């Protein structure tokens, strides 16, 4: 079960990184508007195809997302280290704790993201973070089963 957890956490790490770095958390196709954690972009005027992006300060969501990314990286390093070196119940509990903290941080990132307009739809960055949350939950379940097998 440990290799599958490593794969799931690795995929969640990649998806979280992509979700943080892209500017398509929410979008409005009619107004040609999209926003991410760092920038929100819209067309300069309706006849132009030039996008105008401005920096935004979503400090809470950005901080939670980066903290979740760091927790995922730490979890992946502990998973890889424990897979090759030692495997005991305490390490599994540490991994479970980090995975639960990561899941909570990523869920809070999604919840606390400010929605400025009411007619926005979810875009691919939102879907990526949702998939990353599901993968961290699956990794948590696999690690719990692994801990039960050790004890």
TrEMBL record:
Keyword Membrane carried by entry: yes
Transmembrane annotation, as ranges: 6-26, 64-84, 90-113, 125-145
Record keywords: Membrane, Transmembrane, Transmembrane helix
Domain of life, source organism: Eukaryota
Protein name: Uncharacterized protein
Source organism (scientific name): Adineta steineri
